[in-house]
Specification:
4-stranded mixed beta sheet; 10-stranded mixed beta sheet; Ubiquitin-like (UB roll); 746 residues; 55% strand; mainly beta; 1 helix
Length: 746
Amino acid sequence: MQAENFVRPCTPSQAHRRTAPPVRAASALLTLCVALAGCGNVQSAQRPDAGAPIDAAVQIDAADPMVTLTVRTTGAGAGSVTSSPAGIDCGGTCTLQVPRGTGVTLTATPAAGASFGGWAGACSTGAAMCALTLDADTEVTASFGIAMHTVSVTIVGNGMAEVTSSPAGIDCPTTCSMMVPDGTAVSLTAMALDAGSQFLGWSAPGCTGAAACSLTISADTAISVAYGLNLSLVVTRTGAGSGTVTSDIGGIDCGTDCSQTYAANSTVTLTASPSTGSTFTGWTGGGCTGTAPCSVTITGATGVTATFALHTYTLTVASDGSGGGSVTSSPSGIDCGASCTAGYSYGTAVTLKALAAKGSTFTGWSGACTGTGACAVTLAADTTVHATFTAIPRMLSVGIRGTGSVASNPAGISCTANCAATFDNGTTVTLTATPAPGLAFDGWSGRCSGTGTCSVTLSADTSVTASFHGTAFTASGSWTCANNASCEDVYDVKLPAGATVTLTTSGVTAESAVRLAVFGPGVAPNGANLLTGRGFDRQCVARGGNDAVAFFTGAAGTYRIAIGRDWQLSSGGSGSYGLTVAADGGVTLLQQSLDDASTMAAGAQCGYTFTATGSWICPAGSTCQDLYEFTTVAPTTMTVAVSSVLGGSVTRLAVFDGGDAPNTTNRLNGNTADRRCAGPNQSDTATSATLPLGKHLVAVGRDAATSLPGGSGLYLLTITTPNAPLFAGGQISNDTATQLSSTTCP
C-alpha cells in the first residue's frame, strides 16, 4: 500500500521506564504517564502522489525526566571542579541538571599551593577524574588541602659544618630534610664545626655570605652549603639542571668528587659539562664568571659554584574538528579553546585534559597523544598535540504534504518526499519551499511558520513540515482485506469552506466493488457520511467499475476521505485503485491515516438520505408549514416522504427550484398548488421532476381545512436522492404561513 506518513500509538514497551527515588516518586509517575500518553512514532512509507520512498523517519519520543548533580568543595586548600558535558565550573557549590541516564565526568584541579585530597559522596576514587552515570539526584564533594613541600640541605666540601632550621626540623648532617606547608618561611643557619673549616657559600639564590639563608617555600627545595679546609677548592652545583664539573689537576670530578686540597698558589682550571636536557649558565665564586672554563689560583679555601638550568621546551596545543571545547594542563600553563602554547622544563610530565563544549563531543588526540583519555607527555623537545572536537550531529527532518520540493542552505536537504539530513550542532539551516507547477505553497509547520524561507538553528533534532496545495491530487493505492471483511484506506485532506469537491475513482482492479465515504472536520470514520447523509458508505458501481461523485464543504478544515472495497460484491480480498480529489478552492493532501482498516460503516447505499422529526403549532384555523433548504451537486430527482404523522394532521408537500420563492411551481406536481394526497395521520411519498444542481426548498405543511381540530401535529420527514448527494442545510423556518393557496393530488 502506498501511503503518506501516519502516526501510530506506541506500546508500553516503547515508553521510558525509570525507577525514581522515593522523594521523586510522584513526579516520576506523572512523567511516566505523560510519556505513555504522548508516545508515538512516524512510520516511513510512500506518498500516493509521488510513489517515492521517504528518506528518513521522524521519531517522536517522550523526554527523559531531569536529575540534578550537586558538587561541593571542602578542605583548607583551594581548587575547582569542572564537568564534561559542560555545566559544572566552580570552587564552592554548584549544580547541573541533565536528563536521567546522562554520563558526566568531573575533573578536580587544585589551585596553586593546594593539593587534591580525594572525592566523597557518589565519587570515591582518589584520582582527579570521576565518571558518573546520573540515574537520580546526586551529590559529590571534592576535598582540597594545603600542598606539602620537602626542604633538603646538603653540606658539600671537605670542611666540617652543621645546618639548623627555623622552624625546627633540619639539624644536618644528622637530619637534613623536613616537610613544610606551602608558603612557609624557612631560615637556615650554617656553622663550622672546627677552626679549619671555612664557609664558602650557599647554593640558594638570594642567600649570600655566612648569614642565615631565608626562603619562602612554594615547591620542593634543595639547598647546598659549602665548607672547605685551608688551601682546598670546593665546587658546588646548583640550579634545576644537571651536569658535571672537572679539573685539569687534582682530581675534581663533581659529580662524585667535588673538593680537593692543593699546594699554595696552584692554578686549577675547572670545566663545566651539562647533562642532556640541561645547559650551563655560568660560574660564581673564586673569581670565576661567564661560561668558559675557569682558572682558579689557590691561596686559601676557595668555593666555586656552577649553575645548570634545564632546557625549556614549547608545548603547543591546537583544537581541530567541527565542534568546540577547551584543553587544560597539569601543571598549569595550557588553558585554551583554539590553540595555545606554554614552556616547560626538560623532563616535565604534563597531563592534558580535554573538555567538550555544549553540543560537541571530544573524539580524540593526535600528534604526541592518541585515544580519548587524559594525554600525558614528558617534554624532551618542542611538542605539538591536537585535540579534535566534533559537533554532535543534529537531525533535521522535513515532511512534505502535497506536491512540491524543499532545499536547504547549506546543502543536505533536497527532496520532493519526506526526507532528513544531519548537520553539525549549532548550524543555521535555511529551507526554501518550491511548489510544483500550478500549485501553491501553504506554509510551514513545526519549528517554522509562514510562507517565507524557514531558518532553524539546530541545537536538537528538529522537524519541519512544508504544505503545498493545488486544485487536485491523485493517490494510487491497494487493498488487502481480511477474509470476509470490507476494508478501506483513509486519506486526510485540507479543504476550504464552500468548495465543490469531486471524487473520481479509476483503474479499479481484481473485480473490486468500490465504497466511498467523506467525513467532515471532527467526525470519526463511523459517523455521518457526507455522501449518504448517515452512517452508510456510498456504493453505486458494480465490481470493477469506477465511481464519480461530488459534495460541498461547509467549514474549512481536515476532511477524511475513505475509499473501501466491499467484500460481498467483490471477488477475492485484494485489489488496487486510483483516487482523484479535485476542489475548486484548492486541496492539500495531509497524509494517509488508515491502511486496509476494517470498514466501520453500518452498511452501504447509493444515494443520499436526510431524515428529520418536525412539528406544527399552527394558529387556530390556519394552514402552516416548515421549510427545509438543500443543495444538490448534480441534476437529480428528489423523493419526499412523510410518516408517523400525529395530531390528526393532513400533510401538504412542495418542492421549489433554486432561488424560487415558496409560492411558485411545485416540482412534485408541476403547478402552483401544494400536494395533498393523504388523510389525517396518514403517510405520503412523492418524487419530484429532475432538479438542476443548486439550492432547493422543501415545504412540509399541515392543512387546516382537512385536519382534525387543534392546529398541532408531528411528522417524520425523509428525503432521498438516487445518486447525487445533497448538502443538507436543514430546517430554515418553522410554522410559517403556507404561501400556495390551493392543493391538488396528481
